[in-house]
Amino acid sequence: MDPKENTLDIDIEAYIKGVKQTTPVQGLKVVSSDEDVAEVGTISNGKFTVTGKSAGIVTITLYAVEGDLETPVATIDVTVNNTTPQIANLTLVAGVEKLGVKESSGIWEVNDIAQLTSADVDAFTADMIDSIIFSAADGKAIVTLTSEFGGTSFTFDAVETK
Question: How many CB atoms lie within 10 A of CB 36?
Fold first, then answer.
């Protein structure tokens, strides 16, 4: 499962000696082994949805519930892959000597995202940036990418713009 295409619908079916049974919706519960990787929705009409949250492997377990007794009746391992390109190289575009940054509500941001480029993605966008730290005294900005794109930090000569 790809977190971008982050849902997987699963049908619950029961068979006895090869004969499909009517699946009771009551008395069933589904659980993810790691909600940070994938979470599960409630069972409805003999189906439930698994939603990928981050890369990893989880075990989804279906339980039959009778009072306080929960008996596992089926499991499925789900792998959530991060297919997002990882950015290993971020540079200023040709002709730009210093990254222009501005402060907005206490948060530093790139003045014009077109100043940055990476051969690792088709187009570099502002939502790929997790944070920017700017030091006017040093004339440097540290641009840190979101974990989805690798979480790498890059340092640029920078100037504050209005």
Answer: 10
Query: What is the per-residue burial (b if ≥16 Cβ within 10 Å, else e) of 11-26?
Result: ebeeeeeeeeeeeeee
Nearest to 63 by CA among 72, 50, 55: 72
- The identity of residue 145, as a single letter, is L
Q: Are residues 129 and 104 in the same domain?
A: yes
Query: Is the model's pTM score more than 0.85?
Result: no
Listed as ranges, residues in the chain with pLDDT below 70 are: 1-5, 23-25
Instruction: Indicate if 74 and 121 belong to the same structural domain.
Output: no
- Given 80, 115, 134, which residue is the final one in a domain? 80
Provide CB contacts within 8 A for 74, sequence distance 6+.
Answer: 12, 61, 62
